[in-house]
Specification:
The chain is mainly alpha-helical. 75% of the residues lie in helices and 2% in strands. The protein contains nine helices and two strands. The longest helix is centred in the last third of the chain and has 38 residues, at 214-251.
């Protein structure tokens, strides 16, 4: 059997374990454990980022790590958030409809990961083609977290009319070709623009100051990232068409007349 890199895959295993533990907590049904499950999905996200950063810093990237990371992501950001969503809306709408919505989310997440594994060294080397499953899973989890920690919202707002369409939207964005900003090109071992350091410090301070409202901060941050990708899409298409026209004109022999 071929040898594998230990350090990055340990972080991937930790992300997978956190996702599985979140699933077990959701099955318990205790609201306090539901919140704990949300924290575990958040921990999975940190470990998922860490394993990629460590692999790049130590130059220990491998095909095995790519496949293992995808399997971990499907559990931590596909199955676990889908179960959190089902726990949130399952008693407020027909069970079959809730199951269909959550299953559709997981299936699209699996398709997204399969496509990523094929395209990781080509189209998605710098940016993401479609919403990454960690972003989709965190977005679904954040909504469930906010409604779980705010019983008033859960009582007076029809969460099933909010979360169900958004789950379908997230599923569609995962298998779409909407480009999303990727952070894989940022290598912390190399010199980076000074603004990146300032941004990291500011974000860290804001998270510390707003730690009592972390679920809301997470909700706003993740959904701002998702909406920004959708808003920027028409602009990117316009720029691409303009560049294509300029390239066609440069190759037209009549353009020099």
């Amino acid at each position: 059997m071929r040898k594998v890199y230990i350090l990055p895959n340990l972080f991937t295993a930790g992300s997978l374990f956190s996702g599985m533990l979140a699933i077990f907590y959701v099955f318990n049904g205790d609201p306090r454990l539901i919140i704990a499950a949300c924290w575990l999905v958040l921990l999975s996200a940190f470990l998922d980022v860490a394993d990629g950063m460590i692999a790049r810093l130590t130059r220990t990237q491998s095909s095995f790590g790519l496949q293992f990371d995808s399997l971990s992501d499907l559990v931590a950001f596909g199955v676990a958030p889908a179960l959190l969503a089902y726990e949130t809306i399952g008693d407020r709408m027909p069970s079959a409809a809730a199951i269909t919505v959550c299953a559709f989310f997981v299936i699209c997440g699996a398709l997204r990961l399969a496509r990523f594994n094929v395209q990781a060294t080509r189209e998605e080397s710098k940016a993401f083609l479609g919403l990454p499953i960690p972003g989709a899973g965190m977005a679904a989890m954040a909504i469930a977290w906010v409604f779980t920690t705010n019983p008033v919202l859960h009582e007076y707002l029809r969460v099933e009319l909010i979360l169900s369409p958004l789950m379908v939207l997230l599923a569609g964005l995962m298998v779409s070709k909407v480009p999303y900003l990727g952070f894989k090109s940022i290598n912390l071992a190399d010199r980076q623009p000074f603004e990146i350091l300032v941004t990291i410090v500011v974000v860290g301070i804001l998270l510390f100051l707003l730690k009592q409202h972390l679920s809301v901060v997470l909700l706003v941050g993740i959904w701002s990232y998702i909406i920004l990708g959708l808003v920027a899409l028409p602009y990117r298409r316009t720029v691409r068409r303009r560049l294509e026209r300029l390239a066609a004109r440069d190759h037209d022999p009549r353009s020099g007349l």
